[in-house]
Amino acid sequence: MKVGKLNWDDLKEIIDNNKSVKRKDVRISNGIGEDCAVINYGDYECVVSTDPVTGADENIGKIAVNINCNDIASCGVEPVGILVTILVPPTATLEDIKKIMMEIDEETKKLNVEILGGHTEVTEAVNKIVVSCTALGKGKALSAISTRGAKTGDDIVVTKRLCIEGTSILVNDYEQRCRKVLTDEEIKLAREYVNDISVVKEGIIAGNYKVNAMHDITEGGLLGALWEMAEGSNLGFEIYKEKIPVSEITMKLCNEFKIDPLRFISSGSMVIITKNGDELVRKLKDENIEGAVIGKITEAKGVLIENNCKIEVRPPKRDELFNIN
């Protein structure tokens, strides 16, 4: 099998055929494109999500905390706690584990998230360090936003710039190759991208604004996230390539590595579906968060418009990170 997430059809078949129990207290059940489950507890509800970090060698602890808390924030809810599992090969050192836990502690302090527990193990079952986290959030009953809530005519908003996580991974794990196309100053700036990987702030802002749907952009990039959201809502979308925010540093790296930035891992950016995108962008700007309206939700299939040409967006495949030669 190819490295990366399972393709959409295979994953959907596995989930659909292996989910026998349906509980009344589970208000939103996770599935394709729905990264969180929401459990009702009377006046409040608990939002839960889990994700591993497998594609990075540096900043693993920082990335692990943020991608999981980002999932919680994509429901418009504040994350409150995290469980951490660390699996390391026998070649790892105790210092490696201490460094990861130091990163995790630093990030949880920034987000006011408590480390609730977890598991640490040295095992021959892995050949590199794997960190997997489960994050929990708390909100008032019926407050959590579903990924599947898009409506026809809604605006599509993207926060910050695409490929924040992907750019950070490239410059840390492939530094010498990156230096072929980036200056020393650009390398320094690209390393700092990882500091913008959280979308908790914009998630909570959008949640209070009562948007219709949100999705943090992870593996599969923007097009993967939009495909999952549209498929979950039984709708389509039209987006304009020239409106999609990508930094010049990221574009240089994408050209060097022959990567499509629209299908490249992009934790640090959120897709937000709302009735009035321009108003939301203004609210985000008031909090020093970049935002751009890049298109609309439609009745038909997903379409990328480039130079007045409409290109149909196909189901997401593995992330561009795993296609690097």
UniProtKB/TrEMBL annotation:
Q: Which GO terms describe its biological process?
A: protein maturation
Please give the InterPro entries that the UniProt record associates with this protein: HypE, PurM-like_C_dom, PurM-like_C_sf, PurM-like_N, PurM-like_N_sf
Name the chain's protein.
Answer: AIR synthase
Q: Which organism is it from?
A: Clostridium senegalense
Q: Which family does it belong to?
A: Belongs to the HypE family.
Where would I find the PurM-like C-terminal domain in this sequence? 152-302
Which CDD domains does this chain map to? PurM-like1 (cd06061)
- The PurM-like N-terminal domain sits at 33-137
